[in-house]
Amino acid sequence: MGIPSEERLNEIAQGLAKILRVQDWDINVHVINGYEMDKRYNDCTFCGMADRNIRLNTADIYLNSDNCEDEWYESLIHELIHVQQTPMIHCTKGYFQEDHSYWDDLNEQLTEKQAQIFASVYPYDRFEKERECGKIV
């Protein structure tokens, strides 16, 4: 299965946001190609990235259509976990200014592990079944 449409991704993100308790964020998901990913983040291999604004509680999640066709669900979860962590990251970066890259690497590894666990415990087909039954609105 390929990456769903942006409209469907936004619906999925809203459901996952409720589960992750970030439903108070205005989250928009965009599908871009590797060229656009490279222009935005200087790396065309990223599967997903999220731009977050803690003051406005807004997030734009970008999924790379050239690089995450099979991993879009886990990548979306990964970026939503980053949204979930935004307040913590905002506070802790001040403490880790000198070890900024160490903190970023540690946080990225933790986020990836959380996304893998979440996606294995709560796979996309389970999400769809619960949405169809009305458990997720």
Q: Would you kindly provide a written description of the structure presented here, covering whatever features stand out?
A:
The protein is α+β, with helices and mostly antiparallel strands and 137 residues long. It contains 5 helices and 3 strands; from the N terminus they run H-E-H-E-E-H-H-H. The protein has a 3-stranded mixed sheet with strand order 1-3-2. Helix 3 runs antiparallel to helix 4 (100-121). The radius of gyration is 15 Å and the shape is globular. The two termini are 23 Å apart.
> Element order, helices and strands?
HEHEEHHH
- Give the mean pLDDT: 88
Main-sheet strand order equals 1-3-2
Spans where pLDDT lies below 50 across 5 or more residues: none
* Portion in beta strands: 5-15%
Question: What is the overall silhouette?
Answer: globular
- If helices are DSSP runs of H or I spanning 4 or more residues, what is the number of helices? 5
Distance N to C terminus: 23 Å
**What is the helix content?**
40-55%
Structural class based on helices, strands and sheet pairing: alpha+beta
Radius of gyration using CA atoms only: 15 Å
SS elements, strand count: 3
Oligomer: single chain
Major pleated sheet: 3 strands, mixed
